[in-house]
């Protein structure tokens, strides 16, 4: 399965994410789709990836995706939650990748989170 298939089928195809991407820890985008496609930059994603270890900068200033500021909610080192208005972001860091999915006001954050975390668990189980 290609990285784009994971984004298109396992994330966007569920109807519980309005946008999604998979990137390396360096912020390089491997696949993307939905409302986030073409918006996230490599430096923004690299900063989010680093924020899993130290989220203090996000707590003070928020995180930026596509130039938009998201309020930092929580991070446990593996799962990060960000919010902007009635939508938000769920990000999961695996051994080699980061999955980032957006949700809007028509999607419950918990639904998006379950799908993203499940894919993250799968990628970890196969060495990613």
Provide the spatial order of strands within the biggest beta sheet: 2-1-7-6-5-4-3
Number of extended strands: 7
Helix/strand class? alpha+beta
Which stretches of 5+ consecutive residues score pLDDT under 50?
none
Oligomer: single chain
In helices, the fraction of residues equals 25-40%
What letter string, H or E per element, gives the SSE order? HEEHHEEEEEH
SS element count, helices:
4
SSE inventory with pairings:
Elements: H1 3-11, E1 19-24, E2 29-34, H2 42-51, H3 56-61, E3 63-65, E4 68-75, E5 79-84, E6 87-93, E7 97-103, H4 109-125
Antiparallel strand pairs: 1-2, 1-7, 3-4, 4-5, 5-6, 6-7
3D architecture notes:
Helices cover 33% and strands 34% of the residues. It has 128 residues and is of the alpha+beta class. The protein has a seven-stranded antiparallel β-sheet with strand order 2-1-7-6-5-4-3, sandwiched between helices. The longest helix is centred in the last third of the chain and has 17 residues, at 109-125. The chain is globular and about 40 Å long.
Give a brief outline of the structure.
By secondary structure, this protein is an alpha+beta fold. The chain has helices at 3-11, 42-51, 56-61, 109-125; strands at 19-24, 29-34, 63-65, 68-75, 79-84, 87-93, 97-103.
What distinguishing features does this structure have?
globular, alpha+beta, seven-stranded antiparallel sheet, 128 residues, 4 helices
């Amino acid at each position: 399965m290609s990285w784009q298939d994971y984004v298109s089928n396992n994330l966007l195809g569920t109807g519980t994410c309005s946008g999604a991407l998979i990137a390396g820890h360096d912020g390089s985008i491997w696949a993307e789709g939905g409302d986030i496609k073409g918006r996230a930059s490599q430096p923004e994603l690299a900063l989010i990836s680093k924020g899993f270890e130290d989220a203090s900068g996000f707590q003070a200033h928020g995180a930026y995706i596509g130039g938009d500021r998201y309020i930092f909610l929580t991070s446990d080192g593996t799962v990060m939650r960000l919010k902007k208005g009635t939508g938000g972001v769920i990000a999961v860091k695996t051994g080699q990748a980061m999955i980032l999915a957006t949700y809007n006001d028509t999607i419950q954050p918990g639904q998006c989170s379950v799908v993203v975390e499940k894919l993250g668990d799968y990628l970890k189980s196969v060495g990613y």
